[in-house]
Amino acid sequence: MRLAWLIIAVFAARYLVVAIAYPQTDGDLAWQRWLGAEILRTGVIPNSLGLETFSAPGAPWIAHEWLFSIGAALGRGSFGWALFAGFSAFCAIAALALAAYRAERMGASAPAIAICIAAAGIALFDSFGVRVQVIAWPLIVLFLLLLESEGPAAWLALAVAALWSNVHASAALAPVLAAVAATGALLDARAVTPRVLKLGGIALGSLGAICLNPLGWHLPAYALMLIGSPITHFIVEWRATGLDDPGFTFGALPLLALLILVGAGAGAGRPPGSRPRWEEILIVGAFFWLMLGAARNIAIFALVALPLVARGLTQSIPFLAPEPPRERPRTGRERLAEAGLPAFALALSFAVAVVLLRAQDRTQVGLAAPALAALQRVPGTQRVLCADFAWCGLLVGNPHTRVFLDGRADPYPAKVWDDFIQIAKVGPRWRERLDAYRVDAVVVGRYGPLDQALLNARGWHSAFADDRYRLWLRTPPRVAHGARVAGRAG
Amino acid sequence: MFLAAAPLAARTALLLHLGSAVAAGRGLGLGWLGALALHAADALGGYAGAATLGALELFALTAFVYARARTRAGAVLALGAALFALLTCFDAARLSGIATAWLGAAAFLYALDLAPRRSAWFAPLIALVWCNASATGSLAPVLAVLVAFGRIAETRDVTAARPYWSLAFAAAAATLLTPAGFAYPLQALAALHLDPQFARILPIAPGTSAPHVFRIVATLVVVAAAWLWAGRHRAPDAPLVLAAFTLCFFDGGFVPLLGIVAGPAFAAAARGREESVTPPARAEALAAGLAASFVVLAGLIILPHTPTRAWTNESPLPLLEGLSARGGSHVVFCGTIAWCDYAETLPGLRPFVDERVERATFAQLQTQEKIGRARPGWHQALRANGIDAILVPRDAALAQLVPSLRGWKQAGSDADTRLFVREAGAR
Predict the structure, then answer these.
(1) What is the pLDDT of residue B53?
(2) What three-state secondary structure class fits A5?
(3) Per-residue pLDDT reduced to its tens digit, A373-427
(4) Is the pLDDT of residue B22 over 50?
(5) Are residues A295 and A443 in the same domain?
(6) Which contacts (CB < 8 Å, 24+ apart) does range B342-347 have?
(7) Is A41 within the bounds of a domain?
(8) Both A316 and A383 in a single domain?
(9) CB A362 within 8 A of CB A22
């Protein structure tokens, strides 16, 4: 495992720096902070959208990120932020470490685990950030790890499912995974064994466990609703996985390639060359299916597939086979090498951290922050549409703005989504829809289709523009009215 | 389903391969033989003729997969392999005759399996026909090399691959015997659209170009590889399956190739695991055949039956015919590139870029993307390239932006499309 720890240390540096020094890569954190503050202020989790939006106030909302949002609200200060963001990085690191441990338990060798950790670590890049789904990653791996236990420890999976449901709606996967594992165990044994019954019991128990949160049964119901929801077509993270996702191309795809080349290796307790357990294979198949459907699942597929690929490599390539037990005492050089490895890992992770800190722009320019700041200076209350709805997440809770759509995304009705897409993509009757909602401020990417359309539209003027963004405001009616009155008087 | 799809594939293939010019310049039709066969079938039997040819090609493809799998795994597993290959062809039936193209792959791999017997030398001959029928023929030597590597991995003996090296070399030589001559390999590889820049303007992502079967097929392959391939059973076919699997992520048109290589490979691996099992009795084989027929029937019932207009990309044909009838010459920009295949065949119309995008220059592809997505400078690009007709989907941003351009007006529309032309004399 030492080699694996070396790789994990390098990724740890990367995750920590990205989490703490580059706090916002999407707009979710802003509205989550607002949500957390609201919960702390009122002691109640909101169950509907409020007046922070003008397109769907009162729409039902399952705020499944409530716990994370409280953390985000508490972690506003510099020290609090370091703790909160650091915890997010810790969860990604813990997920990798748990996956490595799972691989070791399956009989994978240290070099094989290290190779697979490198691929999985890259697969995590795209989705990583101070984001609620990252907190769920180690819980998913832990849940699978416990399912694989032969003893009564497997029942602890129910506690993990309950905790998971308080973190993220993906907890609805827990009963499904346990059911898939039970099916696999049934296929392996070709009989209803105690293990099949236990996994079936965990599947049923998980159905109850994922309701042990303030949202109760509404959480799994919400997750089920999301499966068929048309809004997933409009959200980048829900698009089908492809080669344009670097996390897939350079992380998950190499793992898949290795799996196809070497297979998953023999199952625990079976001789090399024999088949793996269906229980393991079906779980990987399920996560592969999920990954193909949505790019947001690339990371969890990599974490789940890692142990099987590492075991396949270990059993197929003699060079990667586990070292036989040492029969002679270590030489001085070997001791030095062993002691040097952790030191090298630390040095490397430090170097990675320094390079990252120097390399990237740490401002919030990517979230249209300059245009949104200009909007704050406009007097009165504005009804705002952001061409990228995530930008409007920064405006949620602002007393002088009400947004069309923001990063909360899920609770907005399909009709609002359809209208938003038609406006943002300049579809037919975009102008009528913009007027029907009485939008009076639009934040767009400079020279994007909507920017060009507004340039040619009457009744709008540019209030702010820089290289990347523009803020359009509706020209006040009194100007036009004044012009008409002047015309009549003349 | 396949019968219905075949003439559509035929029609598109004809337009693609027999068209003489695009704005990108003149070039040789890489699939001239395949297009000629489709044209002949269409001329002789019309719809029924083209449909029969398409069905025969699919039948032949499935038969080659079955034959290849049967020698490795017996009749029952071979039937499974053949059904799997048929499933992978489902979406390809609408992809410009790509199912036709993969018949060459199935036959070529079957011939390779005959090595080291002399009959394996049919493989280069098959490669010769395949190259002249489709650009995918350029893969013949690559497949032979991958099979050679597989044999080395299986036997751990480099000499075991010797027959395949010479077959690979002969197949490579055969790829030069097309009207394109020495230019064929490069032109054909370009025509496979492996360069990611093509994915920005063509709907070739697997979720789009193989929407019904890609996810199912890819998941089956991953599960089967993980479960079946242990020890040396995996070795001979793993490189082939991996190559086909990876290609699918570049272009969903490669999904049939995955079916062709993975079906027999997994059948052989399954057989390798169950070597002690006695060969199936005739009754068992019959039962398997019946079960397979039910699977096919169920598939035919469940999967969509009616090719939609989106499948055929025919939507704006009357608009283009109207534009052609107006007289004069027009350079046409198509928001959906496949529409411009039709523009190619109408007098007076010249597409800016059609589906033979590999013949376009990099600058033209960039311009296509710039205009199609209304990126900054798109209207200057229209002028610079002499484009005076634009055909775009109704819901595209371009359809709302063009009317604001001076000198442009709508010349026609249908339920899905709007046609704009630049008025004479407008700059």
Answers:
(1) 78
(2) helix
(3) 999 999 989 999 999 999 999 999 999 999 999 999 989 999 999 999 999 999 9
(4) no
(5) no
(6) B342/B15, B342/B314, B342/B316, B342/B317, B343/B391, B344/B15, B344/B19, B344/B20, B344/B21, B344/B22, B345/B15, B345/B19, B346/B320, B346/B321
(7) yes
(8) no
(9) yes
Domain ranges of chain B: 2-306, 313-422
**CB contact set of A240 (below 8 Å; sequence gap of 6+):** A292, A293, A294, A295, B205, B206, B207
Average pLDDT, integer, range A458-464: 92
Confidence of residue A27 (pLDDT cuts 50, 70, 90): confident
Q: Does A284 touch chain B (CB under 8 A)?
A: yes
Report in angstroms the alpha-carbon separations of B18 from B29, B169, B253.
6, 30, 20
pTM: 0.88
Q: Do A275 and B395 touch (CB under 8 A)?
A: no
- Given a contact cutoff of 8 angstroms between Cβ atoms, the answer to whether B98 and B259 are in contact is no
Structure-token pair, residue B299: 């598939």
A264 interfaces chain B, CB cutoff of 8 Å: yes
B75 touches chain A (CB under 8 A): no
Q: How high is the pLDDT of residue B282?
A: 64
Q: Is residue A353 part of a domain?
A: no
Contact in structure between B34 and B17 (CB atoms under 8 Å): yes
Strand partners for B422: B408
pLDDT tens-digit readout, A261-315: 988 887 766 666 677 889 999 999 999 999 999 999 999 999 999 999 999 999 8
Return the residue of B nearest to A277 by Cα.
B227
Answer whether A263 sits within 8 Å of B225, measured CB to CB: yes
Cβ–Cβ contact B418 with A under 8 A: no
Asked whether residue A202 falls in the same domain as residue A59, the answer is yes
Is residue A357 a part of any domain in this protein?
no
pLDDT confidence of residue A102: 95
Amino acid at A226: L
Check if A308 contacts B (Cβ < 8 Å). Answer: yes
pLDDT of B297 strictly over 80: no
- In a mutational test of the B interface, the residue from A187, A241, A244, A260 whose CB has the highest number of chain B CBs within 10 Å is A260
Q: Which of A139-143, A201-205, A484-488, B117-121 has the lowest mean pLDDT?
A: A484-488
Residue A354's pLDDT is 67
Dihedral class, residue B348 (left if φ above 0, else alpha if ψ from -120 to 50, else beta): left
Q: Phi and psi for A22 in degrees, rounded to 5?
A: -120, 75
Residues 6+ positions from B199 with CB-CB distance below 8 Å: A242, A243, A244, B193, B205, B250, B251
A282 in contact with chain B, both atoms CB, cutoff 8 A: yes
DSSP string, A184-231: HHHHHHTS--HHHHHHHHHHHHHHHHTT-STTTTHHHHHHHHHHT-GG
For residue B365, give the amino acid letter. L
Residue A489 has pLDDT above 80, yes or no: no
Res. A1 pLDDT band, cuts 50 70 90: low
What does the alpha-carbon distance between residue B72 and residue B114 come to, in Å, rounded to a whole number? Answer: 12
What is each CA distance from A416 to A393, B216, B400, B420, in whole angstroms? Answer: 16, 32, 21, 30
Nearest alpha carbon to residue A105 among A143, A139, A149: A149
Q: For residue A54, give the nearest of A345, A434, A472 by alpha carbon.
A: A434
Residue pLDDT, tens place only, B57-87: 888 999 999 999 998 888 888 989 998 998 8
Residue A98 lies in a domain: yes
What ipTM does this complex have? 0.88
Question: Do residue A77 and residue A168 come from a single domain?
Answer: yes
- In eight-state DSSP terms, residue A48 is B
Q: A228 and A133, same structural domain? A: yes
Query: B272 contacts in A (CB within 8 Å)?
Result: none
Neighbours of B41 (CB within 10 A): 22
Strands A441-445 and A382-386: parallel
From the list B231, B245, B400, which residue is nearest A428 (CB)?
B400
Over residues B23-49, the pLDDT tens digits come to 333 334 567 787 778 778 777 877 667
Domain span holding position A464:
365-488
In one letter, which amino acid is A286? Answer: A
